[in-house]
Amino acid sequence: MSTSSQAGAGGNKPSAPLLSPVPSVRGPNIRSDVLLVLALAALPMLAGAVLPWVLLRPNRLAPGDYLRLPPPLMALMVLLALLPILSARFTPRLTWLAAGLTVFTTFWVLGQQTHSALLGQAEFARASAAAGVWLFGLGALIASYGAGLLLAGRRKALTWVWLPAVLILVWGGHLSGWSVLVEGRNEGPRWVQELVQHLRLVGTALGLSTLIGVPLAVWAAGRERVAVTVLGAANAIQTLPSLALLGLLIAPLSALSNAFPALRQAGISGIGIAPALTAMTLYALLPILRNGVVALRGVPVGTVDAARGMGMTGTQIFWRVQVPLALPVWLTGIRQAAVLLVGVASVAALIGAGGLGTYIFKGLQSAAADLILLGAVPAALLAIGVDAALRGLELWLGRRFGRVG
Amino acid sequence: MTSSSVTATRRVPGRRWPWGVLVWPALLLLCLIPGVLPRLLAPLNLGELTAFDPPLWRLTLTHLGLVALATGVVLLLGVPLAIAVTRPRREALRQLAETLVGLGQTVPTFAILALAVPALGFGWQPTLLGLIVYGLVPVVSNGIAGLLAVDASALDAARGMGMTGRQRLLRVELPLALPILLAGVRTSTVYNVGTATVGAALGAGGLGEPIINGLSQQNTALVLVGAVLSALLALSLDALLGLFSPRNQ
Questions:
Q1: Does residue B240 carry a pLDDT above 80?
Q2: How many domains would you assign to chain B?
Q3: Contact check, Cβ <8 Å, A16/B99
């Protein structure tokens, strides 16, 4: 960050952490702010408990009725909303259990309510989750995040205690009445195909842009003028809308295929997988190139000098000094590119490249909310998963090669 | 408090005259004159361009309006949020805010926009909500970073001068954090120009409309019209907002 020059100049006080939360600050007063987080989590849960939970429609497009929870269940959910904060106040060691219980109950009640709403309805009737579910679920997740702040080290994993339980619910068919899963069951293998297509698009584009971007960054980093130009261009292209870039890149391709019919037979045209991959590769090239140049130029000159003084050859300096030191920042660029690509791939459905975006566009065209969810929620989870996985890889590699700078 | 930061930015050495402030808006206005853009694109022979039904200047204004409205709401929500979570004894709240901001950065924009449709229906409303959610990310994260980077000794000196907490915030912390905060506002606005083009798929109008229409009709000239105009709009706003913030990186 550009602010680092200010930090550290202070007196004996440790300078404040910039971005990442520092675990060592967990002092005696953390309890009061965790209570604040849990109180913040209770608000949407309380609102969610009294709002409607189920939208029952005679078919997937028709308008429907909003159903609230029956009064006894509503009272139970109100109590449950207050459970995490009460637990943190009186038995802080069990807060994770109380918070996990709220998340689990959200799914359980959703399944139970959708099932009971569909009883005696025709086959095409759909029961979707209404505002209450989303608000209660949001609050429950915040509560479980807050509960995680009370846990240290390996015990942090306990915040995810609800996940296996929810997976068992889904597996056991308890949620089978929920309209999104009904839609998903109808799509079945086709949905899996689109997911695989999405992953294939992201993987291919990421692989291609890494293959092109890494040597290019190495070449550019050693040349002052080229490096400055590359960084400037990368920053300028980042300001362009991704949809616009997708369109702009398609223009030359379709012009080419118009001019040379042979190319069209080879599958290169303005629509389909080839232009989507071209656009995605170029888009992902930017963060990889930028972070590569920044990382390689960030290797301290003194370190390189010391290595030269030890008698290392240029190749040895590159592989044993520059690459290990530059790797963490570089990997951050690749992670940013991967996350970006998951998003761009969902827009690429517009030019017929397939992927999860297909469902989003289908849902938008037919105003079917369940189809939108079927595409958008997995795309969002995919991005979060890719981010987490590559972060893990960064940590592992950082530990392996020693993280400097 | 603005005057001090403006003089601080002017002192940055090697700062060139920002030509972009003149060039990009001029090009944008030139392209908006009816008939100019179709005539420029005609030699490329990429597709037919008929008269635009909502004229291009109106699409541009819709686009700009959406982005401006979103930026306004983002400022109203984001700055107090960043201030609230950086007060002493709010460590947990700050971690929550940083985690949520990280999630906002990770989740695809198109997914955020699409998820707002079931709640708000078709039209400009889900796009506005998406733009606000997405625009909050850089403003809140830069606001937090800026406020945390304020030197502890500066705060100590302010306390020693007898300033109250409110005075310290308004006269010391916010002015010192302002450059980073403004950089966040700039990022937020420029990115939202791009995000708003995707909003056309949700019926928001704006410059994404020719892009989406062109993509689905396989009319590349139409795509180019939308792409060129939204790119020029993004570059214009970037240059204009760059006047207020020091060049970073």
A1: yes
A2: 1
A3: no
